[in-house]
Design a protein that fits this description.
Helix 1 crosses helix 3. The protein has a single domain, classed as 3-Layer(aba) Sandwich (Aminopeptidase). By secondary structure, it is α+β, with helices and mostly antiparallel strands. The chain has six helices and eight strands, in the order ββαααβββαβαββα.
Length: 181
Amino acid sequence: MISGKRIRFRAIEHADLPRCQEWLNDPEVTEGLSQYLPLSDMDEEHWFEQAMRAEPAARPLAIEVRDGKDWKHVGNIGFMNLEWTPRAAEFGIFIGDKSLWDKGYGTEAVELLLLHGFQTLNLNRIYLRVFSTNLRALRSYAKAGFVLEGTLRQAVYRHGQYADIHIMSVLRPEWAARQEG
């Protein structure tokens, strides 16, 4: 387990797939994700099989929040495109449980993943891609210390319109300075 104040990360289990599939078939949840087509049971099984073949540091993690005495799976987070020579990785996140949106869990999850990436995996740069239309995510990432590196202009097509994709990152020295401050 990787534990924070109100959340923890654990490995994704096969039993999580129906819940993940439900979330990823919800247009509100996928609005800011590259996922835009409905997922079948087979699609989700295939994703899980591929994810479990990835190196351990690149396997997705379940985000859990305290639910009374138990823990409740509310979304997923993880690193991908790990590059060990430059010590860099891309990350992705989604909170599937919409009742927990705008309560700070996403920001806390991002901050906990940064801690894991910089202190456990010894990364130097953690980056992400975010749609310019995803204002909630942009605020969360900026709050966690990510800075805009560049923009892929009109790189996504959703709802009959093109939108930009922003590339944001945080470097270990920037993150460390925020921890001290």
